[in-house]
Amino acid sequence: MGCKTCMEDRISGLPDELLCHILSFLYTKEAAKTSILSHRWKNVLASVSSFDFCVQSPNMVSDRCAGFVDRVLALGGSSYIHRLRLECANIEDYFSRIDAWICTAISRKVVELDLCLLSYSCQSSFELPRSLFMCDTLEVLRLRVKSNLITKPPTSNCFPSLKFMHVTLYRPFYDPTLYRTFYDSTRNLFSCCPVLEDLIIDGFVHHKPAFLFNVFAPKLKRLEINLYVILDRKSNHPNGWNLEDKFWKNAESLSKAKIALRVPPTGYPGDIYLWQLLHYADQLSKLLAGINKVTYLSFSAPISENIQWCWKHAEGYLVAHKWRPPESVPVCLLSSIKTICIHGFYGRPYEMEVAKYLLKHGEVLTKVTIFYTNDLGVAEEMRLRQELSKFPRGSKTCQVELLELKS
């Protein structure tokens, strides 16, 4: 009895719409290789609406990559683009082409735009095309930039449909003039976002010159700030990073905020380090004082012992690093905070005082979760459990859970 093996091409039997969807998950360079399979696959590639390009190789290869981007975007004609991700290094060699690629995506009604534009030279700057800010189809914008990107959004009709923005600030050049120009333009990136709901800002900011946030986002619901502050060892004057009061103006819809500010290891003299950190404590107080409608707050900073907690509506709260109790019990702790999570707990005396204070005054608490470090040992863990169980509690229904912090 003979045996015949049939090789069935099930992929080619799929409808074009599904094939386009599958190809959208690949780097566009890899997706383009399918065009050699048949004439049909070439037509499928022309119908793909999501593109992922990378132009960051040595010069000769980069030129070929840039030419590939030109050809693929031209292949689609005027068809709709859903997502364009563009990662470019040495962008000073491709300013005009990058501008053209972005403008092509905008003219083809792009919905998601992900730009990683890096340069290793501080001799020139790239300005984002004005049409980017006026695009009425753009809903998602991700920017990863160094300090040679210039943004000049219009004062009105800016980002009419943008709902999600994520800006990553790479470690900057140390050219003061270039740095000032970069941050003066970047701050305006957030100044007119009428329908923005999610904002993420992360990366590095330099202590000097100042980086002034200026956000107008009346529909903002979720905010995440995760920044490394680079201190200036040559100056002990705290005229650096600031937060203007208008940062929080119109942020009535904000319900969730995650804020983490860190200082990279410096080796600076202690008095300079402390002087600058005290300045940031004052600035953070201004920031936190404006968050009075959030129901979830996660906060971490190296100088949080200087902050006075004053939220009135918080229902979730995370304590990180040291903490100094305020002169009067915060209203939120008495009336609205239901869950508390403390990370990196060592059982130090001041940490135990924090836990004791929160348990005593948390009148509506339902759960306190404490994550201890994994190097405490069994005996120390038992001691913590015993001491915590003896602390007075303002809420009879509050449960305390002590868990090992997993790395």
UniProtKB/TrEMBL annotation:
Top-level taxon in the UniProt lineage: Eukaryota
InterPro entries, sorted: F-box-like_dom_sf (IPR036047), F-box_AtFBL13-like (IPR053781), F-box_dom (IPR001810), FBD (IPR006566), FBL13/AtMIF1-like (IPR050232)
Domain F-box: 8-54
Database matches in PANTHER family: EMB|CAB62440.1-RELATED, F-BOX/RNI SUPERFAMILY PROTEIN-RELATED
Protein's name according to its UniProt entry: F-box domain-containing protein
Provenance organism: Prunus armeniaca
